[in-house]
Structure formats: structure tokens, C-alpha cells
Amino acid sequence: MEERKKLTKFIIKDCGFAIGPKPAYWARQGMDIVERDSRLCYALFIPVTPRILSLTPDFSTSTLNLKWSDNGSLFPDGLDAVWQIQILRKETMEKVTQVTYHSKLTHEDIILSWNWTSDMPLECTSHYVKIRCYINVTQFVGLKEWSDWSPVEVIPGKDTDPSESGVFPLDTVVAVGSDVTFCCVHEEGQNITNMSYGSKPYPMIQLSSRSHAIRVLNASASDTSGTNVVCRLNNGMMEGTVLFVGYAPDTPQNLSCETPNFQIIKCTWKPGRPSGLYGKRRTKYSLFERTSGKNVSCEVNEMNRERVCGFPVLPDQKTYDFILGVSNPIGQAESSLLVDITQRVHPKTPEKLTVSENNSTSIHLRWFINGSFAQIRLLCQIEISSGHSEQKLPLSLSEANGRIVSHEVSCYLLETPLVHKVVTEPSNSTEIKLGKNDCVISVVAKNQAGSSPPSRITSVELPTDNIITGQAVAMGNGINVSWDSYPNMTCGYVVKWCHSSGSEPYSVDWQKFPSNTTNAVIKSAPKSAPNFTVEETSSDSILVKWEDIPIEECRGFLKGYLLSFAKGEKDAIKPRLSESGNPELKVNNITNLTQKSMKILDLQGKTSYQLELQAYTAGGLSPPNSLYVVTKEDSVGLIIAILIPVAVVVLLGVMASIFCYRKREWIKETFYPEIPNPENSKALQFQRNICEGNKTLKTLEMNPCTPNSVEVVEAQSAAPKIEDTEMMSPAADTTMPEDGSDSEMENHVVVSYCPPIIEEEISNPPTDEPGGSSQVVYIDIQSMYQPQIKSEEEPEIDIVTTAGYKPQMQLSVSALNTESRSPVEEELDKTAGYRPQANTNAWNMDTPDSPGSVESNNENASFGSPCSINSRQFLLPSKDDEDSPKPINIGWSFTHFFQNKPND
Amino acid sequence: MAGADSPSAALRRHDLCARGIRLAGKMRSDVVDLLDAYVERQGLDASASVAAVEGVPLAAVERWDEQTGTQRLLENLAAYRAFRSLLAQMLEEQREQLGEADAALDRALAAVLLQVSAFAYHLEELLRLESRGPPSEEEDGPPPQPQGLFEQKLRGLGVLRELAQWAVRSARDLRQLAKPQGAGSSPSLAESP
Description:
The complex is a heterodimer.
Chain A: H1 2-14, H2 23-28, H3 38-41, E1 44-45, E2 52-58, E3 63-69, E4 80-89, E5 94-104, E6 111-117, E7 127-136, E8 143-144, E9 153-155, E10 166-168, E11 172-175, E12 180-185, E13 192-197, E14 200-202, E15 205-208, E16 211-216, E17 227-233, E18 238-246, E19 253-258, E20 264-270, E21 284-289, E22 294-298, E23 307-312, E24 319-328, E25 331-340, E26 351-359, E27 362-368, H4 397-400, E28 404-413, E29 416-424, E30 440-447, E31 455-458, E32 472-475, E33 478-482, E34 493-498, E35 508-513, E36 519-522, E37 532-537, E38 542-546, H5 551-554, E39 558-567, H6 577-580, E40 586-590, E41 597-600, E42 608-617, E43 620-621, E44 625-630, H7 635-662, H8 664-671, H9 683-690, E45 708-712, H10 724-728, H11 732-735, E46 749-753, H12 758-761, H13 796-803, H14 823-832, H15 879-883, H16 885-900
Parallel strand pairs in A: 1-8, 11-18
Antiparallel strand pairs in A: 2-3, 3-6, 4-5, 4-7, 7-9, 10-12, 12-16, 13-14, 13-17, 15-16, 17-18, 19-20, 20-23, 21-22, 21-24, 24-25, 26-27, 28-29, 28-30, 30-31, 32-33, 33-36, 34-35, 37-38, 38-41, 39-40, 39-42, 42-43, 42-44, 45-46
Chain B: H1 7-41, H2 69-98, H3 103-129, H4 149-178
């Protein structure tokens, strides 16, 4: 092995390869034969070490270009050479890739070139390249080996230059979906805080002490201003670069070319998918014509979806073979079109059309089309539309009374305006589409001062030539007109006529007939209806009289009259009876022309009727005359209508009386059983005794309200006022003197209690009684209200809280002074009831169902429950009704009082 | 100070100052809006700190209140002339990079450039009123162009931020100038060198 090595070195140094089988041949080729020792002939063949001629970086594309010589002149022609190229990276010289390159030796020194694109920007770190070769010398039967590696060539990274820093690659463009590596080269002594792509931070890969990288996979399309790659340093500074990610241009679609004037060819296409690249990275278009070899770059608007490019029309060239080339930094595409330009002409709208009049039957037209159409037959179409149009002459200066501002053109069908146009000066014509209607056209000139009288023409054409006067025969129902059939007539005939009588301007009527018609009967309706009056009305009939129509308004032979009538009020806005569709409409046809009156029967009394009278001829009905009539009242019917129900009621009453009389015993037993005489009741013995001296007392009378009599017996020496609490307390019974019924008779106040009429019994507060030594406070039994004693420290608030419902007000206590109350006020109070939102001073708190107030000696200002306005009955039961046992006791105290008193 | 001698000149100066203050206010408002749009459209971080950009004059100054009126006007004029040049370059770069893709930003930038030009003219008028006349524009050539697009973006951010600062300072400067002679703490224009 040592020997082989030695030999190899030797051979390489001196002759390049080992001795072959034909030493003479090799010697002729300039090779030294060192030894003829046969042992060496089977030794090694090792090519001379290749030498790199140049290694050139392209930083923008991260591409390395390697050049070396194949030393082919040393070898016979046609030998295969294999080259191994190794790429290394970083200071540590890590192997990135190793590629094999094949070539053929041509017995000449050829400079070979090889490119390699790095996946990492070349600026990021140093890249190294070395090469070796293997030459397949077929004639050499011994061992062949690779040459030694060439000396390493280096492309230093930016991290080797102390002054360089930045993020790489600098502002590149890649296709969507690419994987991109960025590196940040910083100055010595600094550190990178983070690196981000867009807004997203990425993990860093250290390349050297001054260089770090991030790898972005599957990049998505960037914004218009690109995606920022930012490297933040620990000193707060930033380095960065911008990456533009977009698409290669799409193949142009729908390419089409045409010329408008044989001066320029306009090609249009649709760009397809947007590249997402703008500004200087935008997609650029060029139009290449293959026949002429002419190339035109196209300036197109990026924001416009439709692209247009112009190409000049070349002399003597009809066929154009266009290739539309599209390119952007990511890629390119093209689209082609072969076009015969004479078949792709799209002339522009002719300009400068002028019309000059040759004579009355011909005109001369001139127009201009920009372009040179000599090489083709240009066909021009002239459309002549003969609409209904007439020209009105403009007013002369003397007639205009100043400058005419505008003309108003209107078109009327009878009285209905169809079209209204304002034509401003200086234009003095306009077009009106009539459709199928003829109309009267009126033109009014306007100046600053106002409008002129209208000038009118009708659109109905009345030919003035070839008039043939024919004869028409007046018949009973019209005028019979006949004419000869005119062979060229296709659309039909129009018969026009006018009434010659009268002083008004003629109004023309016309009627159209189909082309196969040769005669017609012209009929005409009366112009007006006869005047008519109502002679006589009754409850069921109206007598109507009318006059003859003047003969000039008949417009034909009268056939009769139509008298229509229906119910209808005069005030109501209603259409004509004949058009109203009223189901009650009745029509009387009067064919006897001598009849001048008619009685309408079977009408309803006191009803308004609308009457209409029309005359008619064979031509039709006249416009109607209308009247409103109210029929008279039918008095007999009214009387009958009253008498019959009265008689029926009386009869029924009599029958009921008889029935009741006959069955009186049965009725009495069923509905009116015998009631025991209350005077026989023991309880009422007391009543009788008590009330002996008081004849006004009405106890247990059969009264709808079943009043109860309350007798309050109280001692003169008792406290001047009985407070509510005492009154309502269960102990109230015990405070009553049980044995004072006889001795204190005069002091008894007997009160009849009846809720609705309780105020009748208590007209005044006890304090108003002249000799009132005793005071009684009444409580509405139904309210079951329980007044409470209030301390001085609880003024109004307690009133509110204890009072329950208060009708929308707080009453001032001062307003309740009963001393100052006038009798009128009191009277008002009795009937006033609830007065919402009224003056509180006018309120009377002294109603019997108002509880008394302890501290003010006045009535409490609140109610226990909502009251109806007039009845003073509480609408809602107080809670106390159900919960508090005290009111029940009060009730019982009253009833006990009634019932127990006699026992006392 | 020659300009301040006649009442009409004082009135004119006051009027120019008042209008200048309004213009500076409007400029400030527009620049702040433009800054927001710029940061968003260029994909920048609004909080990014930008080192002092070469060629961009700084609004911050030491001993501001000791400056004379003429000094103020001259500094302002120099700054706005620089901004005019920088903004024109930004506009050109913007059009080159984005084409017609971002017309709104292009319009806003052009509008601010117009206001800066108008303000520079306004300052020249004020200097003329001081019988001083504006200094001739030095033909330094365009400011050095940043190498990378990211640097361009950062420089644009720096220019707009500093311009916003200058708009505030200019309003203060003009307010100072508009004060009646002797009323302000600053030396009068007549004392200016």
C-alpha cells in the first residue's frame, strides 16, 4: 500500500496516469513512461487534481457559479469524465451537499460551469466549494481512482466582515408555498432578542457567533407592501428585510385583437389570477408579433381587470401572429393569437354627421370615420326613421318679445296630457313617441316674462292630395259611408268626421276600420241630456218631467230616453249611476219620444234617490243629467208601526193579569210563602220599648237595603271623644254601661246603619252638634278599617303607610279643620266622593267612612281601600278584612249591640 | 427690527403667525392620521423604536425659550425643507414599490407633502417680513437612499414621527412669535443676529 501510494504520487506528478498497454501511443501523446516494470502497469490511474477557475456568487438569487477546466487536452477524445463537487458551509465547514457532474473530454481544454442555488442566503455565512474528478480511461486496464480534492474556494458570509450587518435575503420575491431561510447578521458583541416573520416569532438556528437564521415553511401570499422579517437586537435596534410572496403570472385568457381604424391593433385579455405583486414587482406584459419580429411592451393598469395593449398596424401586413408574454419575478407565461386584421375591424361610431338638403325629395349626408379603411370594403348603414313629426317654425325676433328661454311641448289626447317636454334654447325640435295614439300637440314659447298662447297641431295626418269626394247617405241610425277598396292599403282605413253645426271650432272624430272594409255607418250620440225636474214627490213615488233636447244637440235621431234611479245621498261623492254598478239601480227605458213625464213608483219613504236622465240615439248615449230627490215620510206606516207593538204589550199584560188572578193561591205558595210576623219575635220587644218615644225610628222595615239600627248609649260623663282604638277594641263592649239603658235615654243616639246611605244618618261630625256631649266615630262595617293611635313622632309617613290606597294625593292636615268648614262645603263633601288631583283644600275628609285621627282631632286624610267615585264602597277589600280579627270583633260588637241591647 | 416698526408689518406678521399656527395644527392632525395608516399598511409595529434617521432634523431642542425669533424661523424652515425632500422621496418610493395598489396612502402622503411645502413657503414669507429673507436652499442632493425596503419603511416611520413633533413645535414657535414685542420672554426679532 505504501508502495502504491508512492507510485500514485509519482505518476500524478509526472505523467498524470499510469502506463497503458500501448506505451508507444501514450508516449506520442506527451506522456512520460517512467518504468517498464510490468508490476506498475497494473497499479493506479489517478487524474490530475482539477483546479477551480472561479467561484462567483449571486447574492440576489443565492446562487453560486463554479468554473473549472477539464484539462481535456491531456486525454484522448471521447473519454467520460466525472466530477464531484462538494459544498460546505459555516466556519466549521459542514457539508451541505455533494453533486456529481458528468462531461466528455474532447481532447481540448474546456471550461466547465456549474450553478448551485443555496437554500440559505449566501450572505448568512461562508460557503466553501471543492471539486475532484474521475476519468474513465477505457484503455487503461488497471485501477482508476478519483483525483484529489481541489483547493477549497470560499464565498465569505457577511458575518466575516465586521462592518456588515442586516437581515438576508434582501427584499426578495418568492412563490406562494416556498420555504425560505432568513438570517440576521449582527455586529460583534450584540445579541438577537428574537426574529419574526410578519408578526410571528420563529425559532432561531445559530450559524455563527454573528449570524442566526430562521426557516419559514410554506410561505403564504404577502400584503401589498410585503411581509416584514424583523430581527430585534438586545440594544433595542431592529434589522429587517421584506419578503414578497406571490404567484407566477397566470396564462392570459380570452386574448383578442381588433382594429378600430387600421392604424392601431387593440389586443385585450383577462389576466386570470392576480399575482399579488405590485409596483416594480408587478406582472409585465409584452406583445410580440412573430412575422415582423416587432415587440411592444404594454402599459397596463394593475387595478383594472381588463387589460388592453396597442400594437401598430404594419404596412402590407394582414395577418398578425401575436404572442402575449407575461412575466413577473416569480415566473412567466404566454398566450398566442393568429389574426387576420381585415377580419377584425370594429369601426368607431361615425362622427360629424351633417345633413344638407338637396331638394324636396332627397337629402345629402356627410360623416367622418377616423381611420384608413381603403383595404377593406366598409359598409355603412343609414337608418331612416320617419316618425310622426312636424316642425314648428321658431318665433321671429319681433314675435318673441325678448329672448326665448325654452319651449314647452305637450301632447294631449282629448283633455288628458300624455307627454310634456321642455326644450331649452337653442334647440328648436324634439321627438315625441306617440305609440298608437294620435294627439293634439301644443307648443308654448317661454321667455323671462311668461308663456305665449299655445300653438296647436294634431298628429292626425289629413292627406291633402288625391281627395276623392264621395257620397254619404244619412240613414235613421247614422250616416252610411262607402268607399272603393284601395289595393295598396294594408293597415286599414280611418273615417274622420266633424259636426258642421254650431259656432264652436270643429272637433274631429274618427274611427278606424280594417282594410277589408269598404263601408261604415257613422253614428253620433246626443250632445246633452234633456233638462228634467221633479214635479211631485210622495212617500213612495216621484213624478219626473223633462223637456226636449235642442235639435242641434241631438246629433241624430233620438231613439228614446233612459231614466235611471237608485238610492243615493247628495253629499256623497259618487260616480255616475250608470257607471256605479249599484245593484239597486233601476233603469226605465222610455221609447215613446212624445212622453215628457214619468212617475217612478214603489219607492221607500223618507229616502234620498239619485235620478239620471239620458237621451240616446243609434250613436250612443248622451251625458246624463242628474237630480237628487228625498221622498216624503210615510205617516200611516209610522202610526201602524207604533200601535201594533203597544197593542201586543197591552194584550200580554191583560193575559198575565188574568192568569195571575186565577192562579193566585199557587203563586202565593210558590213565590211568596208566609213569613212569621216579626212583631211576635221576642227580640223585637226590646225594639218596641226603646223606640216608644222616637217615632222616626224605623227598625226592621222591609227595605231593600235592610238597614240595621244601631243604638249607642253613652254616659254624659264619659270622655268627650271615643277613640277609634277603643271603639274597635274587643274591650269596647265592656266599656259600655250595661245598665244605663233607662237612665240615659236622652243621650242615646240611635243610628241606622246602611252602607250606601250611611251618610244620611250621620250628617255632621259629633263636634258640630250643639249640645253634643258625646261623640261617636263611625266605621264602615264593610271596610273593617282599624284606625291606629299614632304618636307625635310619626306624622304623615305613618298616615301613608297605614292608610293603604290613597287616591293620587297627600292631603294636608291643615286643610281638614272642620271648624272652618262651611255648610256648603260639607254638602259638597257628601256628594263629591273621590276627586283625583283636585285642590286638596276642597276635600272633605269627614265622610262617615273616614277614620278619625287622634292627634289632630280631625279626620284622617286617607282611605283604607280604593273607593268608587260616588258610592264610597271600597272596591278592594282591605287585607285586614281577612287577616285581622279585630274588625270581625267590631262587626260583632255592632250586632251584639243590636241583639243584646234588649237584654240589657 | 425693521419689520416690526410699522403697524402694518406687525399686523401682517400676526396674521401670518395665526395662519401658520392653524396650518401646523392641521398638519399635525393629518400626519398623525397618516402615521396610523402608514404603520398599518407597511406592516410595522407602532411601538417600534426608530433610531434617529439621517437627514431628519430633530424637533427637540435645548434652551428653546432662549431662541430668538429669527432663529426659530430659520430652524423651522430648514426642517420643513428637509421634510419636503424626504416626503417627496417617500412618495416616489411608495409609488415604485406599490404602484397603484395603495392609492389611499399615496394620496395621504401627497397631501402631507403639500402641506409641508405650504408651511415652508409660509415660513419664508415670515422671514421676508423680518427683512431678512429666507436662506437659499442648499443643493445637497437627495438624502441618502436606504438600501433595503425595511429600512425605507423604518425611515418613513421616523420621518412622519418627527414631522408630527415638528408640527407641535412650529405651532409653539409661531405662538411665541405672534406675541407682542416685549411681552414674551424671548428676545425680540430685532435682537436676532
